Backbone:
């Protein structure tokens, strides 16, 4: 057994800068018999789980090999899970601590409460999840009273944050008003809660009362303008009024450009951020990779990915999802697959990006096989609405009606996901492609909500392929009620009539198009150049 002083080992661990160094150091630790030493293990797990150069998967593996009864290490893992795409694991670990009587303290609860809020954010459409999170938050609040931690300002701020995210603004404000010591962060959280529900009167009242503002306060003002679509007002605050800007300020502006569909503007602003020597965060890169995906700016995306690999940066969570999505939307499925298969822990959004990418590009069998793999994976990823959109697209492109019906029914009956208009759109597309126009029409007419123009236009296009005049006429009537007809709509109906040799109707439709002042746009395409 090696004879190494604890102080020397702790000093070495303080200088860790990569996962490879951790692997080398771990061998020394095991030989020295220090594997279960609480200080040594806490340093390793802290680096792996919280550093951008670490690995949450590796941290989890080491943590699970320990006795898992050290409060500091448990707190570190809870904090890491809270910041990751798996905040539910923070709540699970907190429950384990409580079950095993591992002491929780004022460091445990801010992270656990934030984890509850993040679980809610990740499942915002799930009302059952919302109720469970609210109940868990109330349970923790009661425990805080018993432990005498209910007056801790950081815990109180986290309670304000959780209650506001659950929609209990009255409770959030009550906790805020009862705080004897309010930090600027506390003020910002309460103001942000009012901003989120567009109660600007209450928000501005608090802004006037708060003792001082910091960069976060200015960032909230930018976020308000962006949420309201006032991009110029946000730019004025960002470029002219703010005394200082941080990475979050840049992130907000980049996200704002993406929100209004100005992806080129987002990429230009990212370039300005680089010139200003502001270090990009995960959120920055996620936004920029999203803009690359929408514009096909593959080279920028690949440059970001290469930089991350060269720095041995932790590619996990939403960042890995963004890379998979970017490569898939740019048509480079081999690179998307490389990132995807390199992940040890895959969030459902990552599975979705890969399944949808395969389906959209015609790799239908591969998409359906990946869905089957996901259902049995150790990640415990549960399919959601987006997953089934990808699966139904795969069935549509494959032309497999029976499989499409099966998955549609499984979504409803097995996974209790009520289909929305996008799912119905996929089914209408599938049935239309396969010539089952009457069934597609019946589905449109019997949906629990009004069909949109996309569904009627899908059916109209299928009528052109399968020579169905009556449904084409109904489709065009329904379209005209929803929005002004486009040149393509007139052309499709004209072609349906032409193939039925109804030349008078062909002439009538073309005259209506001219009388309506709808020009026929010439076809066009674009290519990217370096």
Residues:
């Amino acid at each position: 057994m090696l004879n190494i002083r604890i102080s020397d080992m702790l000093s070495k661990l303080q200088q860790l800068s990569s996962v490879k160094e951790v692997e080398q150091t771990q061998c020394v630790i095991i030989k020295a018999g220090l594997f279960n030493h609480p200080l040594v293990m806490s340093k390793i797990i802290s680096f792996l789980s919280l550093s951008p150069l670490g690995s949450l998967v590796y941290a989890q593996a080491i943590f699970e090999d320990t006795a898992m009864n050290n409060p500091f290490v448990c707190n570190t893992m809870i904090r890491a899970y809270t910041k990751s795409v798996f905040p539910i694991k923070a709540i699970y670990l907190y429950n384990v601590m409580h079950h095993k009587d591992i002491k929780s303290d004022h460091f445990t609860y801010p992270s656990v409460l934030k984890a509850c809020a993040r679980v809610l954010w990740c499942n915002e459409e799930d009302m059952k999840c919302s109720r469970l999170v609210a109940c868990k938050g109330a349970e923790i609040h009661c425990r805080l009273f018993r432990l005498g931690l209910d007056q801790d300002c950081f815990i109180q701020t986290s309670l304000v944050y959780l209650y506001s995210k659950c929609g209990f603004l009255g409770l959030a404000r009550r906790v805020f008003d009862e705080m004897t010591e309010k930090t600027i962060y506390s003020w910002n959280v309460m103001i942000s809660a009012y901003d989120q529900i567009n109660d600007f009167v209450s928000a501005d009242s608090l802004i006037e009362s708060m003792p001082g503002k910091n960069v976060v306060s200015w960032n909230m003002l930018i976020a308000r303008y962006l949420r309201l679509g006032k991009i110029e007002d946000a730019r004025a605050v960002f470029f002219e009024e703010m005394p200082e800007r941080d990475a979050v300020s840049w992130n907000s502006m980049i996200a704002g450009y993406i929100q209004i569909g100005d992806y080129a503007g987002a990429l230009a602003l990212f370039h300005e951020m680089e010139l200003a020597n502001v270090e990009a965060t995960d959120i920055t890169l996620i936004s920029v990779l999203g803009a690359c995906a929408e514009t096909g700016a593959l080279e920028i995306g690949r440059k970001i990915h290469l930089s991350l690999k060269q720095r041995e940066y932790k590619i996990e969570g939403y960042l890995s999802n963004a890379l998979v999505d970017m490569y898939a939307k740019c048509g480079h499925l081999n690179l998307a697959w490389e990132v995807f298969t390199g992940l040890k822990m895959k969030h459902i959004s990552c599975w979705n990006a890969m399944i949808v990418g395969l389906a959209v590009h015609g790799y239908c069998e591969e998409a359906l096989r990946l869905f089957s793999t996901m259902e049995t994976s150790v990640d415990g990823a549960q399919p959601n609405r987006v997953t089934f959109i990808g699966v139904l697209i795969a069935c549509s492109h494959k032309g497999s009606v029976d499989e499409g019906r099966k998955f549609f029914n499984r979504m409803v009956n097995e996974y209790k996901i009520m289909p929305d208009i996008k799912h119905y759109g996929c089914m209408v597309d599938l049935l239309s492609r396969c010539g089952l126009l009457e069934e597609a029409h019946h589905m449109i007419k019997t949906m629990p909500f009004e069909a949109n123009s996309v569904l009627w236009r899908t059916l109209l296009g299928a009528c052109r392929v399968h020579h169905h005049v009556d449904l084409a006429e109904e489709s065009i009537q329904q379209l005209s009620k929803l929005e002004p007809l486009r040149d393509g709509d007139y052309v499709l109906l004209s072609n349906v009539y032409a193939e039925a040799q109804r030349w008078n109707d062909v002439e009538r439709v073309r005259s209506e198009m001219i009388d309506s002042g709808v020009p026929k746009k010439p076809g066009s395409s674009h290519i990217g150049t370096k």
User: Anything to note?
Assistant: The CA atoms of residues 432 and 459 lie 6 Å apart. The longest helix spans residues 127-147.
